[in-house]
Structures are given as C-alpha cells and as structure tokens.
Design goal:
It is a single chain. By secondary structure, the protein is of the alpha/beta class. Helices cover 32% and strands 17% of the residues. Helix 5 packs antiparallel against helix 6.
Length: 203
Amino acid sequence: MSNEILYILLPDYAAHEIVYLSQAIASDEFALKENPKYVNKAVAPTMEPVKSIGGFRTLPDYSFETMPDDYAALVLIGGFGWTTPVAEQVVPIVQQAMEKGKIVGAICNGASFMAKHGFLNAVKHTGNGLEQLQLWGGHNYTHPDGYVHAQAICDKNIVTANGSATLEFAKELLLLLENETPERIEMYYQFNKQGFCLLVGKQ
C-alpha cells in the first residue's frame, strides 16, 4: 500500500483545515521526521496552482488526471469550490476510494459533498449540521439517522467533521492511520486544544 495521503484541494479551499493533520504527518514536537510513516501530497483539478480562501496559492503534486490509484488516504478539504461544477470531477475519485476500502476524510463542505452524492448513507457521520447535509444531499441523502451531532466522527474508514473541527478531524484520521501510538496522538491533540500554558501548567 502506498504511504501517500492525498489532499483534494479545489479552488478557494480552506487552508486551515489541512494544518493539524499534515503537520502531525510530517513532523513531531521537535522537528521534521526523518522517516515519516506517511507523505503529504496535494491534488488539484489541474497542475496549475490552486488558490485558498485566504489567497495563498499551492502548487499541486498531482492533478486529477495524474494522481495515483494507490494511496493511504484521501482527504477532502473544505472550501467554496465544492459548490462549483469542478467538484463533480471528484465523484469517481471518491467512489473508487470507497470501493477499494480506502480511508476517506471529509471536512466542512467536503462532508456536504459526500452527502450530496450518497457517500454517507452507510456510515455514521457528521458535518456542518444535519440541515445542510439534507439541503445538499436532497434525495441522494437517505441516512439522516446516521448523523451525529459531534465535531468529528469516524466510522468504517470514513472520517467526517464540521468546519470548526480541524483539530478533531486530524485526531480521528491520525488514529485511523495509526500514525503514532494513541497516547502520542492524544498528547498532540491536548497540546493544541488546551494550549502550551494551560497544559504545561498542569504538570
């Protein structure tokens, strides 16, 4: 199995939703990892730089045409691009990933996109509220009973989160990927959740 984690970035993507996950993949609390278990890779519609909501431009590693068939996880980063026609190009990518049993993460509008195409109908899930999932999903979203009012949730290799849950999203994916021991992942989560002063002050 490939060790690449593929982040789907559409135009006007939410850059902050990548930070905690990608950082924990590439580094520990001291420095960049010499031999990381996984490698972060950006995927965009084309090989042209893709712009974030904040105006930063990211040069992708792969386009939809050149991305590999084998990888460790597929991560749908939220943003405004999921409301545009280009998002439809991601449908077969997610479908193939789920058919192969790959780990799939979707946050914010990425989770709403999953609901829109029926990808959440067999799993417990969350997102930007049940109302938005139903609005986006329409007749394709048939599993409102599977909605969990939580920051992030993992079920059957699928991790979903709302747009304010960047850290919780990272934690669930890191655990699923077994990036570190559960204890170290929890330590990373608590450090970033509580802050340096509060956490160190308790010791």
